[in-house]
Specification:
Blueprint: E1 5-11, E2 14-19, H1 20-40, H2 46-77, E3 82-88, E4 91-96, H3 103-131, H4 136-156, H5 164-177, H6 180-207, H7 212-244, H8 247-250, E5 257-259, H9 264-275, E6 279-284, E7 287-293, H10 294-299, E8 315-316, H11 329-339, E9 343-348, E10 351-357, H12 358-370
Parallel strand pairs: 2-3, 5-6
Antiparallel strand pairs: 1-2, 3-4, 6-7, 7-8, 9-10
Helix pairs in contact: 1-2, 2-3, 2-4, 3-4, 3-5, 5-6, 6-7, 7-11
The structure holds zinc ion (ZN).
InterPro entries: CBS_dom, CBS_dom_sf, Peptidase_M50, UCP006404_Pept_M50_CBS
Transmembrane segments: 20-37, 44-66, 107-127, 142-163, 184-205, 211-229
Family: Belongs to the peptidase M50B family.
Length: 373
């Protein structure tokens, strides 16, 4: 969902990006703030109103980045890699490489964000006190920032997944029952209740005169939370499933092969287009020397397919990613995602005994979840 974001920089190796929906929010928030300042301080000049609104909005987003950095730095300290922090319409999100593997890690990562927001609220409050006799503009801006950070900290502590409070709740259930899955189920249930609650409140608020926009906003947040809770539940349980399915049990044993001297065109016409298999192991004198895929073939200009042997475009054996039959499907899926590949040969000692294919694995996992085991 947040793939197409604009990179604005990096902190501690973490990519910071903004999704295009962020610009909508930036404009909305700065105009709401400008309207608020104009109403409460009619003595301010137009330029002062607009500049204060823009700078305050920017500081608000800096606060969100710091909140997400709080999560991220604790995650990294606890051995969970963080890929990116992305700002989008409903705030910020820190994308981690994997889930926390202990309840304690989950707890510390989750609590770090709201703690940063509480600290920022305190800091902006002190700044407000410091400026109160010098500048109304600074006082107003710091006052708003202190309040919004306090609201952020408190709202995020509501115990519904994927809010931070939901993650804290999940960690606590996990810690006291010893069951990570139970923690997830409870936290997701909490998340859905919060989502329904927000949508209901949004509907009631929206019916009040002049409050339509606020109502729609709350319904939007509720809807987003519901989708995120359900999406996280699915991702969690399918990865649980994938961790228990072994490569050796689901691999395909008929390994398509070609010899090094076969032309790309010959391979495509006599194998790929007939079997639907987009790859083949390349052998020479019975030894496996590489792997050719449709993607490799496409790298070569079509006019040269008839005269180019597969060995010229294949991935050589030394550079191949392989797995063992005892690996879990989850491990293979991670390799496929990280390396952006769709097929992985399965090796037992020095022999290829089968292969695993992304589509095939997904189909099997869907069947597992359809019959509930
Ligand atoms: Zn957070």
């Amino acid at each position: 969902m947040l793939e197409s974001s604009l990179r604005i920089g990096a902190i501690a190796g973490i990519r910071i990006g903004v999704h295009y929906t962020w610009f909508i929010v930036f404009l909305l928030l700065s105009s709401v703030l400008a309207a608020y300042f104009r109403e409460t301080h009619p003595e301010w000049s137009g330029v002062a109103v607009v500049l204060t609104a823009l700078v305050t909005t920017l500081m608000y987003f800096v606060s969100i980045v710091l909140h997400e950095l709080g999560h991220s730095l604790v995650a990294i300290a606890r051995g969970v890699q963080v890929r990116a922090i992305t700002l989008f319409i409903f705030g910020g999100i820190a994308q981690t490489e994997k889930d926390a593997d202990t309840a304690a890690t989950e707890f510390y990562i989750a609590i770090a964000g709201p703690l940063v927001s509480f600290l920022l609220a305190g800091l902006f409050y002190l700044l407000k006190l410091g400026f109160v006799s010098y500048s109304t503009i600074a006082t107003e801006a710091f006052n708003w920032l202190a309040t919004i950070n306090l609201v952020l900290a408190v709202f995020n502590l509501i115990p519904g997944f994927p809010l931070d409070g939901g993650r804290v709740f999940r960690a606590l259930v996990w810690r006291f029952t010893g069951d990570a899955a139970k923690g997830m189920q409870w936290a997701v249930l909490g998340g859905k209740l919060v989502a329904y609650g927000l949508m209901l409140i949004g509907a009631l608020v929206g019916l009040q005169p002049g409050m339509l926009f606020n109502g729609i906003w709350l319904i939007g947040i509720g809807w987003f939370l519901f989708a995120a809770a359900e999406g996280s539940r699915r991702a969690y349980f399918s990865s649980q499933l994938a961790a228990h399915v072994l490569v050796g049990d689901v691999m395909q044993k008929q390994v398509p092969t070609v010899t090094t001297d076969m032309s790309i065109l010959h391979w495509i016409d006599t194998q790929m287009l007939l079997t639907g298999q987009r790859f083949a192991l390349v052998t020479e004198g019975g030894q496996i020397v590489g792997l050719i895929t449709l993607n490799d073939a496409i790298q070569c200009p079509r006019a040269q397919w008839a005269d180019t042997p597969v060995c010229e475009v294949m991935t050589t054996f030394e550079r191949l990613y392989t797995v063992k039959p005892a690996n879990s499907v989850l491990e293979v899926m991670e390799i496929m995602r990280e390396q952006n590949i769709n097929q992985v040969p399965v090796m037992d000692e020095a022999t290829v005994i089968g292969w695993i294919d992304r589509e095939h694995v997904l189909k099997i996992l869907q069947l597992h979840s359809a019959i509930g085991r």
